[in-house]
Specification:
The chain is α+β, with helices and mostly antiparallel strands. It is about 15% helix and about 30% strand. The longest helix has 9 residues.
Length: about 110
C-alpha cells in the first residue's frame, strides 16, 4: 500500500507531489501580466504515462485538478482497482440510471 501524496513547495514557483508510481508538478509562469499554473504528471516507470494538463488561473484549482486525476495516489486503492470500479458507467453528469447509448455520452 502506497503512502498518500502530499504537496511540497520547492521554490516560489514550483510545487511537487511525489508518489511511488509518479510525480505531479505545478509550475507557475508569469507571461504578459497573467499568472498561469501548469500541471504535469511524470511516471517513474520506464515507458509509463506522462501528460500535461491545461493551465489554470489559480494554484488552488491546479491542485484540485491534480488531486482529482486518476493517477493521484491516495493510499487507499490502486489505479487498477479504480479503473475496474468505474468501468461501465457513463461519464455524462446527467446520465440516466439504465444503460442507453446516446451521442453525448462516452462509454469506456
Amino acid at each position: 500500500m502506497s503512502k498518500k501524496m502530499k504537496w511540497e513547495r520547492q521554490k516560489s514557483t514550483l510545487h511537487i507531489a511525489e508518489g511511488e508510481n509518479g510525480t505531479f508538478t505545478i509550475r507557475e509562469s508569469r507571461r504578459f501580466g497573467t499568472k498561469r499554473f501548469w500541471v504535469k504528471y511524470r511516471s517513474k516507470k520506464p515507458g509509463g504515462k506522462n501528460f500535461d494538463m491545461p493551465p489554470c488561473g489559480s494554484l488552488t484549482m491546479a491542485k484540485f485538478m491534480a488531486e482529482d486525476n486518476a493517477y493521484w495516489e491516495t493510499g487507499k486503492e490502486t489505479l487498477k482497482a479504480a479503473e475496474k470500479k468505474d468501468k461501465k458507467e457513463p461519464c455524462h453528469a446527467f446520465a440516466p440510471k439504465r444503460e442507453v447509448k446516446r451521442w453525448d455520452m462516452r462509454y469506456q
